[in-house]
Amino acid sequence: MKEIEKFKELINLEEYYNAHEALEELWFPIRKSKDNYCLLLKGFINAAVSLELHKRGKIEQSKKIYLIYKKYVNSKRLELIKNELEFKNLKKFLDLIFKYKNIH
Description:
Radius of gyration: 13 Å
Strand content: under 5%
CATH class: Mainly Alpha
Distance between the termini: 28 Å
CATH topology: Hyaluronidase domain-like
Helix content: over 70%
CATH architecture: Orthogonal Bundle
Number of domains: 1
C-alpha cells in the first residue's frame, strides 16, 4: 500500500506531522467506522502524533498518545484484518523507533 510506504518514509525523515497526514487520507473517509482496519489506522496516526510531540519536547503528552497507539495497535486486531502482514511490519517498524527514542 503506497500510503503505508509514504508513512514509513516520512517517519524515517522525522517528518511526523506529514506522516500523520499521509495516513489520515485513508482514515478520514472511514473514521466513523469502528472496524479493525479503521482502528489500526487511527492507532498508527497516533504513533506519528506521539513522535511529533516527543520531537517538540512534550514528553508527557507524547507518552499519553503512545498509550493510545498501543491500545489500537494490538495483536488481536492485527490478526483480524486483510493487510495483516503489512500492518504487522509497520508495528514492528514503529516499535523499534519508540524503543530507540525511549518512548514507552
